[in-house]
Write a structure and sequence with these properties.
16% of the residues lie in helices and 41% in strands. The strands form 4 sheets. Strands 10, 13, 14, 15, 16, 17, 18, 19, 20 and 21 form a 10-stranded antiparallel β-sheet that branches. A 5-stranded mixed β-sheet has the order 1-8-7-3-4, with no helix packed on it. The chain is of the alpha+beta class and 266 residues long. The longest helix is centred in the middle third of the chain and has 18 residues. The protein binds zinc ion. Zinc ion binds next to loops.
Length: 266
């Protein structure tokens, strides 16, 4: 009882802070129930400790800033969502990628529906137990969350992070998992998506060559494909994304947040 009190005391004194498009990792002493605004959030064993659990709270990009309530073992914890101001970007792409022809619309809708069905699936098993790595060692060229104007007409937001990658650069799995998408798609081009379990997915887009197949188990650093410039792009690069409970969250902030589990570990 005392232990539980000590665990929650700091949470009561300071509301948890999070920005839209980011994820918060909360370490828990014991297996607990977590609800965010009535929605149950999975709790899982801490891979860096013998005992201990953790939970990941993602806040979607378009979430309204304000005070939300997190319920941990029926205890209310205020969660303050701060508005993050993202940069604006202007990108020039092929006309067909802004105003697709009628025949492409059917394909786009099908691909979107299929991907969202996958991203909202929560595989009960967790495949990973190590910190996440980035799929290549390169310079970030476009951050997550940038508000985008394609050819000065279409507005959207950048759902991942872009890295400089000349054609044919090897792209590797950021952690262990199972391949759930390995195909050419209209906007994302050559695409690989890995299910890491428990509602977590990583995405590798615009590939020129795909070297894995759906259903294949992959280990961290395993070669997934070669970078390219397929799909809605203005040039060759790798788009790396992370989805948690279907929300596209900042992949770099996610990687850092997961690292906090392993801090202090030999
Ligand atoms: Zn991108």
């Amino acid at each position: 009882m005392i232990k539980l009190f000590l665990l929650f005391l700091p949470l009561f004194l300071f509301a948890l802070q999070i920005k839209n498009g980011e994820v918060k990792l909360i370490k828990l002493d014991a297996n607990s129930t977590v609800f965010l605004e009535g929605k149950k959030i999975p709790v899982t064993k801490n891979p860096a400790q013998k005992e201990g659990y953790f939970t990941l709270i993602p806040i979607k990009y378009k979430e309204k800033p304000g005070l939300y309530t997190l319920l941990i073992n029926n205890k209310k914890i205020p969660l303050h969502v701060e508005l993050k101001e993202y940069k604006k970007e202007y990108i020039k792409v092929a006309k067909s990628k802004v105003k697709p022809e009628k025949k492409s619309l059917k394909r786009i809708y099908k691909e979107y529906k299929n991907a969202m069905k996958i991203y909202s699936t929560i595989t009960p098993k967790r495949y990973w137990n190590k910190p996440f790595i980035l799929p290549l060692d390169s310079k970030l060229t476009s951050s997550y969350g940038n508000a985008r104007m394609f050819n000065h007409t279409l507005k959207s937001f950048h759902s991942g992070a872009d890295f400089r990658a000349k054609m044919g650069t090897p792209i590797r799995a950021s952690n262990d998992g199972r391949v759930v998408i390995a195909s050419k798609r209209y906007y994302a081009g050559g695409s690989v998506v890995i299910d890491h379990g428990e509602g977590l997915y990583s995405c590798y887009f615009h590939l020129s060559k795909i070297l894995v197949h759906v259903g294949q188990k992959v280990k961290q650093k395993e070669l997934l494909g070669l970078s390219g410039k397929s799909g809605r792009v203005s040039g060759p690069h790798l788009h790396y994304g992370v989805r948690l409970y279907s929300y596209a969250i900042n992949p770099l902030q996610f990687t850092k947040e997961i690292d906090t589990l392993f801090k202090g570990r030999r």
